[in-house]
Amino acid sequence: xxxxxxxxxxxxxxxxxxxxxxxxxxxxxxxxxxxxxxxxxxxxxxxxxxxxxxxxxxxxxxxxxxxxxxxxxxxxxxxxxxxxxxxxxxxxxxxxxxxxxxxxxxxxxxxxxxxxxxxxxxxxxxxxxxxxxxxxxxxxxxxxxxxxxxxxxxxxxxxxxxxxxxxxxxxxxxxxxxxxxxxxxxxxxxxxxxxxxxxxxxxxxxxxxxxxxxxxxxxxxxxxxxxxxxxxxxxxxxxxxxxxxxxxxxxxxxxxxxxxxxxxxxxxxxxxxxxxxxxxxxxxxxxxxxxxxxxxxxxxxxxxxxxxxxxxxxxxxxxxxxxxxxxxxxxxxxxxxxxxxxxxxxxxxxxxxxxxxxxxxxxxxxxxxxxxxxxxxxxxxxxxxxxxxxxxxxxxxxxxxxxxxxxxxxxxxxxxxxxxxxxxxxxxxxxxxxxxxxxxxxxxxxxxxxxxxxxxxxxxxxxxxxxxxxxxxxxxxxxxxxxxxxxxxxxxxxxxxxxxxxxxxxxxxxxxxxxxxxxxxxxxxxxxxxxxxxxxxxxxxxxxxxxxxxxxxxxxxxxxxxxxxxxxxxxxxxxxxxxxxxxxxxxxxxxxxxxxxxxxxxxxxxxxxxxxxxxxxxxxxxxxxxxxxxxxxxxxxxxxxxxxxxxxxxxxxxxxxxxxxxxxxxxxxxxxxxxxxxxxxxxxxxxxxxxxxxxxxxxxxxxxxxxxxxxxxxxxxxxxxxxxxxxxxxxxxxxxxxxxxxxxxxxxxxxxxxxxxxxxxxxxxxxxxxxxxxxxxxxxxxxxxxxxxxxxxxxxxxxxxxxxxxxxxxxxxxxxxxxxxx
Length: 822
Known about the structure:
The protein has 19 helices and 38 strands. The protein is of the alpha+beta class. β27 and β28 (about 700) form a beta hairpin. The relative contact order is 0.10.
């Protein structure tokens, strides 16, 4: 019909306009929101430019005289399999619990330290490179030594493009323009460096591979080969690793020596680096293929690729992730190119820079895409970027918040697929955690405590004051529940339900009744890393029923029961989980301070501004505390945040962004974001642990030192400014925590996700939504608050019936359909 034809033309025009808009926006905001700029080479690691394909990482320093590129491979782990569980530790469980029930916390903690920590050296007190726990570490360095290091350098610039994952360095010497482009290609599984000179024969350099320990470098068949074996701990050999470097020059001469490749009088040259280990993730009890043979074969395949083809394939693959979600904020100065360091400083001094917020959001997604891909290993404490042989805290997986925070952004920013490595890790943890559950608690199911690694470490840590938190694995398991909430795929739930079942089975079986109220509580445990004061002034950590344990327990037990119902299985058992959850110690408000109590008893905190804000787990990432459903608890949560203050380490500031956003307080959330973006202090490559937290020149989070969870957590927090969908009523809230600062008044976001399987493209003007389309991925009922809706049309131009229920627009959707709210 004519009307149908008109609708079709209108839809086609709208679709084309949308495509034009996003292409145009990518050009208008070319520098400001997707590019990091620098006007000098990096001196420190935290000034260099990160690249990654989920397995391989590179940090590009951009030095035109002696270039350093740090090389990383995500399975580069020392250590090995061990049994870290203390045999028959469970015999001390009841004595420890009895002491806690009698209020003898310090005696319980002493007994725990003696008999209820891990066997052996544990994490080596965070220095585990040469013990069984192991350490994630640098693979090595690539060096490019230019022949002319005397001539003056001019017109220097380097940049990292987030929309194409390319690091470019350009400079001029003696009238010759040199250009270096670096990518970490997922399709070629290689780090590829293109070097060009504007004058024929202008390239003259030597390149080499280097590792200061456990490695040898030699030349063979025109390639440089770096090979070695890491320390397996206890005198054992660890994994083998191999790196291969090839130089492909179009002209000039190439000379391969024992430890370097020399290029003379070339105009173009491509360096190809391939890295492998024989760690067979996740079957780490076995060894994989010979890493040298694999690195040689991969290098050979990558070396025959033309640069333009390798680049095109890399960009297509990368953008299949990056283009799913993107934030723009209106910025009149978006095309003014300034070094990122200057932007950070100016921002702290009050100069508006809306695109810096968008840049940080887009950078967080960039980092997750670059450090966590399907089929690989999870992003660790440093993603996959490390220059150390002993990384801080072993670069491991801390599961009392840090690994979880790495993935808070995955679902909401349309990168759910990047979270797959976490579920593989959970499968491994469940496998090894069964033995830990037996040895320490004589319980079924599985448990993991505070730290873990690729080798299946699930025992308590070596220190009672921090290592006995028993809900780390349970917390990580709730990511299965959240992933299903965002993408309600029943096959996904069926696949990972056994992990939930095992975690819930353990949790439910180890609870005891505390004497004062008869509530069910965990014991022994602690509130992550924080200490309480007893009435006599002494301090302790070990306790029963810390608030965070109870909140995690409710989420796990109720979520597992709901999952069983969705799958139509385990009815009797899952009903029992709901009964148990109802008996857990509830959230309590302190009579002394009005805050959410951190412990079962109303103890004073040793550090009222402690970086862990554990009692607010129920506010974020869980949703049992909300301003609309639990206003009294929400008010207490606000007091808790006010008491904690606006300071803290990088990741702690990131967590507070999410807390304030969940309370609907965009201004305090923005204040925390500004604090996180405070330039970190570097002096002689040393970081001041007291005042250095914030953001490094390359936008890496300063814990300090560098720790990537702050980047990821803050990105999730920024997403909460624009769309929230938590809570049992399944309502999508638009602009629920938008700061009143003018920088946020006008903007667009593409591809942000909401729970129940909805994807949203939205534009707002003067802080009010004026354009929105909703894509229904699973055909669920859609409920939206925050838009003045007059009509809804699908992509066929058909009007959709909707209702207004308590201020929410409610309409039924069809799977795969797009809905335009006008």
